[in-house]
Amino acid sequence: MPIAHGQPAMVRVQDAKTGSPVPYAHVCFFPLDGRDQVNSMTDEEGNAPNLAPVRSAVAVSYIGFETYFDTIDPGKSATFRLNPKVQDLNEVVVTAQYAPKRVDQSIYKVKVINNRQIEQKAATNLTDLLNSDLNIRISQDGALGSSMSMQGLSGEHVKFLVDGVPVIGRMNGNIDISQINLYNVDHIEIIEGPMSVVYGSNALAGVVNIITKENLNTHLDAYANGYVESVGVYNFDGGFSYRKKKHTLSLTGGRNFFDGYTDNDSLRSMRWKPKRQVMADAYYLFSELNYKAKVSGSYFDEKLQSKGNLLGPYYETAFDSYFLTTRATAKAEASSKWKSGRFLNLIGSYSYYRREKETFYKDLTTLEETRTANPEDQDTTWFHNAMARGTFSKSREESKLNYQLGIDMNWEMGEGKRITGEKQAIGDYAAFLSIEYQPWKNLLLQPGARVIYNTKYQAPLVYSLNVKYGFFDHYTVRGSFSRGFRAPSLKELYLYFVDVNHNIRGNEELESENSFNANLNFAYSRETRQSFVSAEVNLFYNYINNIITLAQVSGDLYTYVNLDKYISQGAQFTTNYRLYPQLNMRVGAGVTGIHSSLTDEAPGAKDFYYSPNVVASASYHWLKYDLTFNADYKYTGTLPQVEIDVNQQLVEGYVASYNMLDINVGKNFFKDALGLSAGVKNLLDVTTVPSTGGQSGTAHSGGDVSVPIGWGRTFFIRATLNFRKI
Q: What CATH number does domain 92-210 carry, 3.40.50.1820, 3.90.380.10, 2.170.130.10, 3.40.50.720?
């Protein structure tokens, strides 16, 4: 619209559904004559100056809304109406895609946890974030941290990525997800189901890809976070990013501290070990419209203390062990896009992981520590990983035939006195191809295949077929069938892992795993002007030959063995309702069943052992006071367990069911410069649950009769400071 004489040209940004102004939205002007972009930000009334020097493309963005694109002339005023992401189906995802794509258009069922949801849950690490998710089960270990299973498959079958780079450092086969902090995370993409064609080994159950933040629009962006929890958690982190024209530099870092927790005050030893974490991330980014190059590095350091019980006769001394973990990654990546709809992506990385054990005799009267002489008390193990990955894709919406070619090379080496021969290495080199064919508008087919050369195991051809079909505008069916392959890890083959609670020996005679997997998803969604409702049913079936598991050899000694077969199957139902912009509710229920060759010939054994789980969450935005209330509930059903004991007898047992509930409230102040949230975690005060038979004592000396779940009811407060200069 034209402006009156003497008035500056303005752009007004509004909510397309309510007509209300959108304050603090980013407005970026891209001059069509090739000049550098110019940025602005709307005020509290949703207004910003038109800074276009010539006719320009304009992009308007704000969290919770779809990015709006248009053109504008200098000296003209205009009103831009942003569509809110009522249903979050317009999130752009990159995991396993030919090119960045809206989540509703992906042939895979991708779950996106965005930054807004992370903040609403006040999650500080991946454990906090995923412990209330359906079909994901979190297991806790006071020394080894948190691990997760998905679709009834344990953590060694889940591929964890940070910006496409695998996370290394699996202890007992699992990544400690409490070490994956969220302070610089933009969003997380989760694909449940086998992804072996695209990502190779460790992707039989699915992929968790953590996408970190990138500053593409703001001249200066700085923040600081503080988090305190009543159990003795003190976390602080902060960072900044500076952008000038096409160049961005960023540096972030933080320190976490946990004072430890035990439910037995009479002992000095603690069930949940005290620990300190330090982390840092940095990147340099060069970006323009169709090209991006980035160099980045990350560093993580953890010191965990295992306090020993007091020694007689005067109870003034004890043996203390320290476990020191270091993880560092250096990465370079480049991507380009051509007008013909072709994309090239290249990633190279080197990752380093070290775990060191130190044991001391401690005088508690003087606090003097003396390193013990027993060589078994001191140990250091190193792992190195080099990865290179490249993909070339054609992805055009108007084309019936698209494709992706890729190479994926991984090399890992382990060193240390607890590794057989003190040094071992394994390489996995692959090429893959997938074709996306759309015979008509509503049907999408994607066959794929992966050829693998593994330096220690003969790998089969891995293949998959994914199908997506939409009908009646509101219904979508997705299905997949695939074959998977997993070679044993260096730790499963060669590592002799011993600490105060664990005694596990590697097995060089292990065979590789291979699997057949099927998934089927039915989805319904409907949106009105201010509401959205959806419902989903998901079915899965996983059949694994030669699955690797722990077996008792003698006493407290365990080793890895192959089972002939392992099957997991299950179903889950979820429904979501959102009334924009105030209310969001989600309810889900699922059941997972497992069967293994252990139960084939056991008298009275069941074909399948099932475990149910239920989730419910609600978020309410009190507009009058700009307060947001959140509640997350999860019921985790009884988990059956079956194992063979040292006498080759079948032992059945269970881990009892439990309920978890978290609630919190949050509010922003001073134009979103300050954010405060407070709440209660584990409101129902769950610490441990009974466990009998099965794996209650697997690989643990002493055979606990209870399984740790949490450190009970705690209260927290979180504060966030943000500063942005356009």
A: 2.170.130.10
